[in-house]
Structures are given as C-alpha cells and as structure tokens.
Hints:
8 helices, globular, alpha/beta
Amino acid sequence: MEAVIEINQVSKTFKGTETISNVNMSISRGEIYGFLGPNGAGKTTIMKMILNLVKPSSGVIKVFNQPILPTSYQYLKKIGSIIEYPVFYDRLTAEQNLEFHCKYVGYGDKTAIRETLGIVGLHGVGNKKINEFSLGMKQRLGIARAIVTKPEILILDEPINGLDPIGIKDIRDLLLLLKEKYGTTILISSHIVSEIESVADTIGIIHHGKLLKEVKMEAIRKQNTGSLEEYFINLIHGGNLYA
C-alpha cells in the first residue's frame, strides 16, 4: 500500500543527548497505526516532528511523498492532530473555537461544526464556554477540532486521556468509522495497550528513542497466543519475539 508518512533514519538531539535514534517508520494510506511505548520513549517527539513543530537533527520525514522542510506548512491543511493536552480559548464557546480553527486552515463548511460536535458526543453544548467544560469534554472537543476539517491524516497523541469507559468506546468507534467510511489514515498513541489492540492495523513499539518493532497486528494474532500487552512487555524487556 502507498505510504503517506515515511520516516527515514530520523534522529533528534536535545542539549547533547540523543532522544530519538535512527527511527524508520512507514504508515500506509487508510490504516490505523498504533504507536506504543513507555512515557518518555519518544512518541510525542516523533509526532511533533511529523507536524514540523520540532525539527529532526538528521534524517528525512516525508508526508504525501514530499520531504518536510523547515519552512513546510501547506501539507498541514490535510492533517488533524492532538498533541499532548488540547488548548482552547477558554472564554469562547465550543462552536467559536471550532469556527476559529476552520478559518485558520481555510475550511469553509459551516455545517461541519455542529455535525462534528455531535459525532464526538458534545451535541447541545456548542454555546457553552470552554471554562465550563470538564477534562473529558475538553478531550472530546480536541478530537472534534482534529476531525472537523475532514483531514486525510489524523495524528492523535493519547486522545483518550480523561475519558470514561463510555467515552473511550465512543472514540474507538469513531476511529474505525473514519478509517472505514472516509479512508482516513490515523497515527495514534496510547498508554492503554488494549485500546490500541482493538483498532490498529500496524503497531510501532518505541523504547528509549529507538523503534524496536514495526509489525502488523495480523502477524501478532497469527504468531502469538497472548495479548498485545504481553507482546509489548516482553519486547520492552528484551524478549526476542519472532524477530
């Protein structure tokens, strides 16, 4: 399948310390790519480099087969994202925040805002100011902002943080819908391994800034009798699982 995100020999050094080391990743069009690793493994840094928020020290990142340069930005119109904790204008309403975002990226479908709020479970609260939102509501709004412009790629860094079990299921169903109905390519990280297992086509496991394994979920299911969580823990702790 066609790769829409390619990461080739990418490294990143902060203050003399290499935090990302020679990472190679390939994310195919229309797939859900689950990005797993302990806290501090480098997941967020790689996502930020794809979005040009952080510049790699070496290597090449391509999106839509075009290398990302320090000045690249047009490709970002085709990407929706949540990185770390979503931030909003607290004194504006949910709808106003989404309107501002749509104007910023040049997206003109005004009907998409209320439709998207409904999709993420925020129907009827569009006129509520953000400073009245709970953590879970803000997380849902962050996802709404990421998908309101119907992007070709979604990059979601821990998108289910702050959600209750019903909210987690809603987001799981939403990701599968976006993939199946719209062909959206999704890169998602999470510390809840079982949730990644339930949606991902491909798994990338990173530890101490190194990509230990990139493997199809289908291969894990065929060759490993245990769960993805067992596979993940064994690999992180040095297991040599069908290398």
